Amino acid sequence: MIRFKDRTDAGRKLVPTLLHYKNNPDVVVIGLPRGGVVTAFEVAKGLHVPLDIIVSRKIASPAQPELALGALSQEGFTFFDEPVMHMMSVTKEELQPVVHAERQEAKRRLNLYRAGLAPVDLKNKIVILVDDGIATGATMIATILSARHLGAQKIVVAVPVSPPETLEKIKDEVDEVVCLDTPIAFLGVGAFYDNFAQTEDSEVVKLMKEAKK
Q: Which CATH number does the domain housing residue 145 bear?
């Protein structure tokens, strides 16, 4: 099992696996806020390519807020995990209040994190989607849908850790997957970090501004 000191360390450990994209003018790294932006910042810096964000939000079960029943992206693309919804006896109609609230939150965060900065054009680009880890894969799938809508020619998912069954699901949606560890005993992304403190909005804003310099 691989352990990471923190999200910065995880990003630095991802860089050697992605060196074939270094200095490529057609490559853009996309971080998934909030924590994924810290990891993505190190990847973009190590590869000497631009950094940007796509804001996706978990659609949580009303009965179990920690359980993802799907996710949505900043453009409004929605992914529902229908097998889990069926298991929980939840319908899409019942989730509409959650969907509406998360859509508003995605817009708020996008405006906050960009802070007036122009988005990077993803049309015909090789887009590397980076998060600090994948659990259910719902938010990553919503982000993949968004990247395709924005014109990405090739989509690469790069993460430090993911359960193997989730990674198999992700592989069907993208062109390439890089993952440093796929433990069978998966107790949550934070279990593989020494420091997995919550990333604050201010840190995301700071990294975005620094990446544009």
A: 3.40.50.2020
Dist. CA 152–CA 6, nearest whole Å: 29
Residue 1 lies inside a defined structural domain of this protein: no
User: Domain range holding 174?
Assistant: 7-211
Total domains in the chain come to 1
112-159 confidence digits (pLDDT tens): 998 888 899 999 999 999 999 999 999 999 999 999 999 999 999 999
Helix, strand, coil percentages in the chain from 3-state DSSP, rounded to 5: 40, 20, 40
What is the rounded CA–CA span in Å between residue 119 and residue 61? Answer: 31
